[in-house]
Amino acid sequence: QVQVVESGGGLVQAGGSLRLSCTASGLTFDNYAMGWFRQAPGKEREGISCIDWSGFRTVFVDSVKGRFTISRDNAKNTLYLQMNGLKPEDTAMYYCAARGTSGYCSGSWPIQSDYNYWGQGTQVTVSS
């Protein structure tokens, strides 16, 4: 049984930092590219970053580029999202997901149906 569990969310002031973690079990972690998604209140869930199976290739949506860093530790089956320079508009539920269609983040990486396994999310709230 596959389980994906996010942690590390919380309340932070604008300009602050948070580090999200996502631990997966029940799957061969390094077979999967991994993605981070978020859903703000009243908005659709959007992809914000993807990392390939090796950890060497990453992609980011423009709104977080230069502020967020994605990384993974395959030995620990864990994915990370380091978020710096947080803004109120970063307030959202953050989800991680395993991309079952490929171990790579192709141009279609934000397509959510490409991801087989999802966590329940962790809330990030940024106060102004």
Considering the chains and any ligands shown, give keywords for the structure:
49% strand; 128 residues; seven-stranded mixed sheet
Task: Describe, in plain words, how this protein is organized in 3D.
- The protein has strands at 3-7, 10-13, 18-25, 33-39, 46-51, 58-60, 68-73, 78-83, 92-99, 115-118, 122-127.
- With 128 residues, it is mainly beta.
- The mean pLDDT is 97.
- 0% of the residues lie in helices and 49% in strands.
- The chain starts with a strand and ends with a strand.
- It is built from no helices and eleven strands.
- The strands form two sheets. Strands 2, 4, 5, 6, 9, 10 and 11 form a seven-stranded mixed β-sheet that branches. Strands 1-3-8-7 form a four-stranded antiparallel β-sheet, with no helix packed on it.
- Strand 5 and strand 6 form a beta hairpin.
Overview in brief:
This protein has 128 residues and is mostly beta strands. It is built from no helices and eleven strands.
How do the strands and helices of this protein lay out in sequence?
Blueprint: E1 3-7, E2 10-13, E3 18-25, E4 33-39, E5 46-51, E6 58-60, E7 68-73, E8 78-83, E9 92-99, E10 115-118, E11 122-127
Parallel strand pairs: 2-11
Antiparallel strand pairs: 1-3, 3-8, 4-5, 4-9, 5-6, 7-8, 9-10, 9-11
Distance between the termini: 40 Å
Work out the strand percent.
over 45%
Average pLDDT, all residues:
97
Structure classification: mainly beta
- Low-confidence segments, ≥5 residues, pLDDT <50? none
Estimate percent helicity: under 10%
Principal-axis shape = globular
Radius of gyration: 13 Å
Number of helices: 0
E-strand count: 11
Largest sheet: 7 strands, mixed
Order of helices and strands: EEEEEEEEEEE
